[in-house]
Amino acid sequence: MRDYELVAIVNPELDEDGVSQIVDKVTESISGRGGEVEEVKRWGRKRLAYPIEKFMEAEYFHTRFKLNPRPVKELEAEMSGSGDILRYLVVKLND
Fold first, then answer.
1. What is the layout of strands, in order, in the sheet containing 85-92?
2. How many alpha carbons lie under 13 Å from residue 35 in its C-beta half-sphere?
3. pLDDT at 45
4. Which of 2, 14, 67, 80 is the most buried (most CB within 10 A)?
5. 88-92: Cβ within 8 A, 24+ apart
6. Predicted confidence band at 94 (pLDDT cuts at 50, 70, 90)?
7. Would you call 63 helix, strand, or coil by DSSP?
8. pLDDT exceeds 90 at position 24
9. Dihedrals φ, ψ of 83, to 5°?
10. Angle at 76 between CA 16 and CA 23, to 5 degrees
11. What percent of the chain is modeled with pLDDT above 70?
């Protein structure tokens, strides 16, 4: 398994429970694909550098996890299909 980091920008119209559900869904998706979630940090609401879908602020969260390469593509496809995750970035850490 490889080490990865994920930063996601979540729809600011969601309440605290909605954002928590998104974070839980992502961590469950990683675990369900045989990965290990090492750390989850909620960064809170931050101002965006440019509008995304007419939003100027959004909720951020950061996750460190271990996962095999193929399921990472599946995870990215799942996040792309989510209407509540506005943007995300998955980065492979050094081997």
1. 36-52, 55-67, 2-10, 85-92
2. 27
3. 93
4. 67
5. 88/6, 88/7, 88/8, 88/9, 89/6, 89/7, 89/8, 90/4, 90/5, 90/6, 91/4, 91/5, 91/6, 92/2, 92/3, 92/4
6. confident
7. strand
8. yes
9. -75, -15
10. 20
11. 99
The DSSP string of 65-76 is EEE-HHHHHHHH
Q: Measure the CA–CA gap between 65 and 30, rounded to whole angstroms.
A: 8
Per-residue model confidence (pLDDT) at position 95? 63
The total number of residues written for the chain in this structure? 95
Taking residues 71-84, report their average pLDDT: 90
The encoded tokens of residue 53 equal: 């879908």
In the numeric block, which tokens belong to residue 52? 């995304």
> How far is residue 92 from each of residues 7, 41, 47, 95, measured CA to CA in Å?
12, 18, 26, 8
CB 37 within 8 A of CB 51: no
